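Q: A reviewer asked whether we had any structural model of the full assembly, not just the individual parts. We don't, so I'm hoping you can provide one. Inputs are below.
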Amino acid sequence: MKFSSDLIRGVAEPIVLRLVAERPMYGYEIIKDVNQRTNQAFEWKEGTLYPCLHRLEAAKLVDSEWREATSGKQRKYYRITRKGRAFLRDKVSEWTSFSAAVSALLLCSHEA
Amino acid sequence: MKFSSDLIRGVAEPIVLRLVAERPMYGYEIIKDVNQRTNQAFEWKEGTLYPCLHRLEAAKLVDSEWREATSGKQRKYYRITRKGRAFLRDKVSEWTSFSAAVSALLLCSHEA
DNA sequence: TGACATACCTTGCCACGCGAGGTATTATAC
DNA sequence: GTATAATACCTCGCGTGGCAAGGTATGTCA
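A: Here is a predicted structure for the entire assembly that you could use as a starting point for your response.
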Protein backbone atom coordinates (compact mmCIF):
# COMPACT_ATOMS: atom_id res chain seq x y z
CA MET A 1 0.00 0.00 0.00
CA LYS A 2 1.52 3.22 -1.20
CA PHE A 3 -0.37 6.28 0.02
CA SER A 4 -1.32 9.19 -2.16
CA SER A 5 1.21 11.95 -1.60
CA ASP A 6 -1.66 14.36 -1.01
CA LEU A 7 -2.46 12.55 2.21
CA ILE A 8 1.02 13.16 3.59
CA ARG A 9 0.62 16.92 3.59
CA GLY A 10 -0.46 18.20 6.92
CA VAL A 11 0.87 15.22 8.84
CA ALA A 12 4.53 15.06 7.82
CA GLU A 13 5.60 17.82 10.17
CA PRO A 14 3.68 16.54 13.21
CA ILE A 15 5.05 13.04 12.66
CA VAL A 16 8.62 14.27 12.53
CA LEU A 17 8.05 16.34 15.64
CA ARG A 18 6.63 13.35 17.48
CA LEU A 19 9.70 11.28 16.62
CA VAL A 20 12.27 13.84 17.68
CA ALA A 21 10.23 14.49 20.81
CA GLU A 22 11.08 10.99 21.98
CA ARG A 23 14.80 11.36 21.44
CA PRO A 24 17.19 13.32 19.23
CA MET A 25 17.33 11.77 15.78
CA TYR A 26 19.12 12.48 12.51
CA GLY A 27 17.47 12.71 9.12
CA TYR A 28 18.52 9.46 7.56
CA GLU A 29 17.45 7.67 10.73
CA ILE A 30 14.02 9.31 10.67
CA ILE A 31 13.38 8.14 7.12
CA LYS A 32 14.26 4.55 7.94
CA ASP A 33 12.31 4.68 11.19
CA VAL A 34 9.08 6.03 9.71
CA ASN A 35 9.16 3.53 6.87
CA GLN A 36 9.88 0.66 9.20
CA ARG A 37 7.31 1.60 11.84
CA THR A 38 4.62 1.67 9.20
CA ASN A 39 5.82 -1.57 7.59
CA GLN A 40 6.73 0.36 4.46
CA ALA A 41 3.22 1.78 4.16
CA PHE A 42 5.07 5.06 4.22
CA GLU A 43 7.93 5.31 1.75
CA TRP A 44 9.54 8.57 2.69
CA LYS A 45 12.48 9.73 0.63
CA GLU A 46 15.07 12.42 1.19
CA GLY A 47 13.17 14.91 -0.96
CA THR A 48 10.30 14.74 1.49
CA LEU A 49 12.13 14.73 4.77
CA TYR A 50 15.03 17.14 4.47
CA PRO A 51 12.97 20.14 3.33
CA CYS A 52 10.52 19.27 6.10
CA LEU A 53 13.27 19.32 8.73
CA HIS A 54 14.55 22.63 7.40
CA ARG A 55 11.08 24.15 7.61
CA LEU A 56 10.72 22.96 11.17
CA GLU A 57 14.08 24.40 12.10
CA ALA A 58 13.36 27.72 10.39
CA ALA A 59 10.15 27.90 12.42
CA LYS A 60 12.17 27.12 15.55
CA LEU A 61 10.10 24.02 16.26
CA VAL A 62 13.28 21.95 16.32
CA ASP A 63 16.96 22.72 16.71
CA SER A 64 19.96 20.76 15.46
CA GLU A 65 23.47 19.76 16.35
CA TRP A 66 26.22 17.98 14.39
CA ARG A 67 27.65 14.87 16.02
CA GLU A 68 30.20 12.34 14.82
CA ALA A 69 29.12 8.72 14.80
CA THR A 70 31.54 5.96 15.84
CA SER A 71 31.71 5.16 12.13
CA GLY A 72 33.21 8.60 11.56
CA LYS A 73 30.15 9.89 9.69
CA GLN A 74 28.80 13.33 10.45
CA ARG A 75 25.17 13.28 11.54
CA LYS A 76 22.86 16.21 12.14
CA TYR A 77 20.73 15.48 15.17
CA TYR A 78 17.41 17.24 15.63
CA ARG A 79 15.65 17.91 18.93
CA ILE A 80 12.20 19.33 19.55
CA THR A 81 12.00 22.76 21.17
CA ARG A 82 9.54 24.02 23.74
CA LYS A 83 7.70 25.83 20.95
CA GLY A 84 7.73 22.60 18.97
CA ARG A 85 6.05 20.71 21.79
CA ALA A 86 3.22 23.22 21.95
CA PHE A 87 2.85 23.08 18.17
CA LEU A 88 2.79 19.29 18.30
CA ARG A 89 0.06 19.25 20.93
CA ASP A 90 -2.09 21.48 18.73
CA LYS A 91 -1.46 19.41 15.64
CA VAL A 92 -2.24 16.13 17.40
CA SER A 93 -5.49 17.59 18.61
CA GLU A 94 -6.28 18.87 15.13
CA TRP A 95 -5.54 15.46 13.66
CA THR A 96 -7.84 13.72 16.14
CA SER A 97 -10.77 16.00 15.27
CA PHE A 98 -10.02 15.90 11.58
CA SER A 99 -9.71 12.15 11.27
CA ALA A 100 -12.92 11.66 13.22
CA ALA A 101 -14.75 14.07 10.93
CA VAL A 102 -13.42 12.44 7.77
CA SER A 103 -14.18 8.94 9.01
CA ALA A 104 -17.72 10.03 9.89
CA LEU A 105 -18.19 11.35 6.38
CA LEU A 106 -16.50 8.51 4.54
CA LEU A 107 -17.48 5.44 6.48
CA CYS A 108 -21.19 5.95 7.01
CA SER A 109 -22.86 4.21 4.11
CA HIS A 110 -26.46 4.88 3.19
CA GLU A 111 -27.55 7.13 6.01
CA ALA A 112 -30.69 9.15 5.51
CA MET B 1 -11.78 24.42 14.77
CA LYS B 2 -10.62 25.32 11.29
CA PHE B 3 -8.50 22.61 9.75
CA SER B 4 -5.24 23.20 7.95
CA SER B 5 -5.94 23.22 4.22
CA ASP B 6 -3.13 20.71 3.78
CA LEU B 7 -5.22 18.13 5.57
CA ILE B 8 -8.06 18.48 3.07
CA ARG B 9 -5.94 17.34 0.16
CA GLY B 10 -6.40 13.69 -0.51
CA VAL B 11 -9.80 13.48 1.14
CA ALA B 12 -11.84 16.12 -0.69
CA GLU B 13 -12.51 13.93 -3.70
CA PRO B 14 -13.48 10.81 -1.72
CA ILE B 15 -15.83 12.87 0.46
CA VAL B 16 -17.58 14.35 -2.55
CA LEU B 17 -17.88 10.91 -4.10
CA ARG B 18 -19.37 9.50 -0.93
CA LEU B 19 -22.01 12.24 -0.86
CA VAL B 20 -23.09 11.90 -4.46
CA ALA B 21 -23.09 8.12 -4.04
CA GLU B 22 -26.00 8.50 -1.64
CA ARG B 23 -28.08 10.63 -3.99
CA PRO B 24 -27.53 13.10 -6.83
CA MET B 25 -26.49 16.48 -5.44
CA TYR B 26 -25.59 19.87 -6.86
CA GLY B 27 -22.49 21.86 -5.98
CA TYR B 28 -23.93 24.51 -3.77
CA GLU B 29 -25.80 21.84 -1.85
CA ILE B 30 -22.63 19.80 -1.32
CA ILE B 31 -20.84 22.79 0.19
CA LYS B 32 -23.65 23.48 2.64
CA ASP B 33 -24.02 19.81 3.46
CA VAL B 34 -20.36 19.14 4.20
CA ASN B 35 -20.07 22.21 6.38
CA GLN B 36 -23.24 21.39 8.27
CA ARG B 37 -22.48 17.70 8.77
CA THR B 38 -19.15 18.61 10.33
CA ASN B 39 -20.65 21.40 12.45
CA GLN B 40 -18.64 23.93 10.49
CA ALA B 41 -15.39 22.10 11.27
CA PHE B 42 -15.08 22.07 7.51
CA GLU B 43 -15.56 25.42 5.84
CA TRP B 44 -15.58 24.55 2.18
CA LYS B 45 -15.89 27.37 -0.30
CA GLU B 46 -16.64 27.40 -4.02
CA GLY B 47 -12.96 27.61 -4.92
CA THR B 48 -12.43 24.24 -3.29
CA LEU B 49 -15.49 22.38 -4.47
CA TYR B 50 -16.13 23.36 -8.08
CA PRO B 51 -12.65 22.54 -9.37
CA CYS B 52 -12.91 19.29 -7.43
CA LEU B 53 -16.21 18.40 -9.13
CA HIS B 54 -14.73 19.22 -12.53
CA ARG B 55 -11.75 16.99 -11.89
CA LEU B 56 -14.03 14.15 -10.87
CA GLU B 57 -16.14 14.59 -13.97
CA ALA B 58 -13.09 14.79 -16.24
CA ALA B 59 -11.95 11.52 -14.72
CA LYS B 60 -15.42 10.06 -15.35
CA LEU B 61 -15.88 9.30 -11.67
CA VAL B 62 -19.11 11.34 -11.69
CA ASP B 63 -21.45 12.56 -14.40
CA SER B 64 -23.75 15.56 -14.35
CA GLU B 65 -27.13 16.77 -15.52
CA TRP B 66 -28.79 20.19 -15.47
CA ARG B 67 -32.16 20.36 -13.74
CA GLU B 68 -34.46 23.25 -13.02
CA ALA B 69 -35.49 23.75 -9.41
CA THR B 70 -39.06 24.77 -8.52
CA SER B 71 -37.54 28.19 -7.80
CA GLY B 72 -36.57 28.42 -11.46
CA LYS B 73 -32.84 28.18 -10.74
CA GLN B 74 -30.65 25.95 -12.86
CA ARG B 75 -28.82 23.35 -10.85
CA LYS B 76 -26.15 20.95 -12.01
CA TYR B 77 -26.68 17.59 -10.37
CA TYR B 78 -23.81 15.16 -10.01
CA ARG B 79 -24.09 11.38 -9.76
CA ILE B 80 -21.40 8.83 -9.08
CA THR B 81 -20.49 6.45 -11.91
CA ARG B 82 -19.59 2.79 -11.71
CA LYS B 83 -15.96 3.77 -12.08
CA GLY B 84 -16.45 6.30 -9.29
CA ARG B 85 -17.77 3.65 -6.92
CA ALA B 86 -14.71 1.50 -7.49
CA PHE B 87 -12.46 4.51 -6.97
CA LEU B 88 -14.33 5.39 -3.80
CA ARG B 89 -13.92 1.89 -2.39
CA ASP B 90 -10.17 2.10 -2.96
CA LYS B 91 -9.93 5.55 -1.41
CA VAL B 92 -11.94 4.59 1.66
CA SER B 93 -9.67 1.62 2.16
CA GLU B 94 -6.62 3.83 1.68
CA TRP B 95 -7.97 6.32 4.20
CA THR B 96 -8.59 3.60 6.78
CA SER B 97 -5.02 2.32 6.54
CA PHE B 98 -3.56 5.77 6.39
CA SER B 99 -5.40 7.19 9.37
CA ALA B 100 -4.53 4.14 11.44
CA ALA B 101 -0.86 4.53 10.55
CA VAL B 102 -0.82 8.23 11.35
CA SER B 103 -2.65 7.75 14.61
CA ALA B 104 -0.23 5.04 15.60
CA LEU B 105 2.68 7.37 14.94
CA LEU B 106 1.18 10.48 16.47
CA LEU B 107 -0.72 9.22 19.46
CA CYS B 108 1.75 6.82 21.02
CA SER B 109 3.68 8.87 23.54
CA HIS B 110 6.95 7.68 24.97
CA GLU B 111 7.14 4.17 23.58
CA ALA B 112 10.47 2.44 23.57
C1' DT C 1 -34.48 49.82 -5.10
C1' DG C 2 -31.14 47.60 -2.69
C1' DA C 3 -29.50 43.83 -0.16
C1' DC C 4 -29.04 39.11 0.43
C1' DA C 5 -29.30 34.20 -0.68
C1' DT C 6 -28.87 31.01 -4.23
C1' DA C 7 -26.31 29.02 -8.00
C1' DC C 8 -22.74 28.62 -11.25
C1' DC C 9 -17.88 29.72 -12.66
C1' DT C 10 -12.47 31.06 -13.22
C1' DT C 11 -7.87 33.09 -12.23
C1' DG C 12 -3.68 33.37 -9.67
C1' DC C 13 -0.83 32.65 -5.62
C1' DC C 14 1.71 29.62 -2.89
C1' DA C 15 3.00 25.57 -0.52
C1' DC C 16 4.76 21.10 -0.61
C1' DG C 17 5.58 16.12 -2.04
C1' DC C 18 8.87 13.83 -4.42
C1' DG C 19 11.56 12.35 -8.54
C1' DA C 20 15.90 13.24 -9.92
C1' DG C 21 20.18 14.71 -9.33
C1' DG C 22 24.46 15.99 -6.62
C1' DT C 23 28.48 15.35 -2.90
C1' DA C 24 31.26 12.85 0.52
C1' DT C 25 32.39 9.01 3.56
C1' DT C 26 32.59 4.17 5.04
C1' DA C 27 31.80 -0.79 4.30
C1' DT C 28 31.71 -4.82 1.57
C1' DA C 29 32.70 -7.89 -2.03
C1' DC C 30 35.45 -9.51 -5.81
C1' DG D 1 42.97 -2.26 -5.77
C1' DT D 2 38.55 -1.26 -7.28
C1' DA D 3 33.77 -1.42 -7.99
C1' DT D 4 29.40 -1.39 -5.61
C1' DA D 5 26.47 -0.48 -2.07
C1' DA D 6 25.07 1.69 2.13
C1' DT D 7 25.22 5.69 4.83
C1' DA D 8 24.59 10.61 5.28
C1' DC D 9 23.78 15.14 3.82
C1' DC D 10 21.74 18.38 0.28
C1' DT D 11 18.98 21.09 -3.75
C1' DC D 12 16.22 21.91 -8.02
C1' DG D 13 12.08 21.70 -10.64
C1' DC D 14 7.63 19.83 -11.84
C1' DG D 15 3.02 19.22 -10.94
C1' DT D 16 -0.98 19.42 -8.06
C1' DG D 17 -4.56 21.44 -5.57
C1' DG D 18 -6.59 24.51 -1.73
C1' DC D 19 -8.65 28.73 -1.51
C1' DA D 20 -8.95 33.89 -1.60
C1' DA D 21 -10.75 36.80 -4.67
C1' DG D 22 -13.28 37.99 -8.33
C1' DG D 23 -17.12 37.47 -11.81
C1' DT D 24 -22.18 36.41 -13.71
C1' DA D 25 -27.13 35.60 -13.29
C1' DT D 26 -31.49 34.67 -10.93
C1' DG D 27 -34.86 34.72 -7.12
C1' DT D 28 -36.57 36.75 -2.62
C1' DC D 29 -37.78 40.13 0.59
C1' DA D 30 -38.11 44.55 2.83
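A: Points you may want to mention in the reply: Residues 5-6, 8-9, 12, 44-48, 51-52, 55, 71-74 of chain B lie near DNA strand D (CB under 10 Å from a C1'). Strands of chain B lie at 25-26, 62-68, 74-80.
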